Prior knowledge:
With about 325 residues, the chain is an alpha/beta fold. It has helices at about 5-20, 45-60, 80-85, 95-100, 115-125, 130-140, 180-190, 205-210, 220-225, 250-255, 260-285, 285-290, 300-315, 325-330; strands at about 30-35, 60-65, 90, 140-155, 175-180, 195, 215, 235-250, 295-300.
Amino acid sequence: xxxxxxxxxxxxxxxxxxxxxxxxxxxxxxxxxxxxxxxxxxxxxxxxxxxxxxxxxxxxxxxxxxxxxxxxxxxxxxxxxxxxxxxxxxxxxxxxxxxxxxxxxxxxxxxxxxxxxxxxxxxxxxxxxxxxxxxxxxxxxxxxxxxxxxxxxxxxxxxxxxxxxxxxxxxxxxxxxxxxxxxxxxxxxxxxxxxxxxxxxxxxxxxxxxxxxxxxxxxxxxxxxxxxxxxxxxxxxxxxxxxxxxxxxxxxxxxxxxxxxxxxxxxxxxxxxxxxxxxxxxxxxxxxxxxxxxxxxxxxxxxxxxxxxxxxxxxxxxxxxxxxxxxxxxxxxxx
Length: 335
Ligand code: KDO
């Protein structure tokens, strides 16, 4: 797989931006247009938060135009679109950021973030300053806020009688769909599985046809995407307390007045907080609904998973990209 280096990625993006149309919001007498691309649905709590909280707060000077289910830009291409000036916002992942800047993989590492509150402390800590600066200066992307996606678990087509998942060894040979970026594939292997890269919008069909054995999203996504219709078990591995960033075009940001910038920042923080609470509420209440649809949910040997997964990262080429001392600072911000 051709691994585009950081410098090559930015140079190619810069070259492309010479030809792309102006990213600046649609020309209008007095209103800007903020476009947002996400592979999530319109009913996903992060999408709902952006539409119901962010959009009204910026409505005085900007129209909000979301594109759901990867219809505006395919999953994993949104940041490039922002950088080229063809998109204002995305609900980005650390894994996608890591495609440009490998050091972001630290925020996508199994069993590092402990919970939603830990994610917020990390995102607001000075340790993030260099990461945010790199994203702005080299990619033209401003990371406004951190959103809570939830605890990712192993969700399989096989029944527990067919495949009882207690330790990573039980996942040997299991064709586990993971999102397409390198750090996602690394996590899939670290779990003990044989990961298959696939866009989120293709997962339901792949599960229903048996093209893959399973996937690994949080319980709210299992319900929102109806994965419970085409799977039969969830092993509560909690292997990644996952997050997204509200990513915003630096070019658009710089064109705003300082009052507009303050409003956009407050709107992003409010949307992230709203979505976090709604997602946590769903995460804590959906297990019985999923079980009622024939999916067995159980807790595997968490210590075995944590120990094994963390051991895969130690000394790995992924860990080699992490700036000195950052992991210690993240851990110190934990409970
Ligand atoms: C997924 O593709 O499994 C994933 O959960 C990865 C996340 O980073 C995020 O892109 C998410 O999909 C989409 O927002 C759809 O929920």
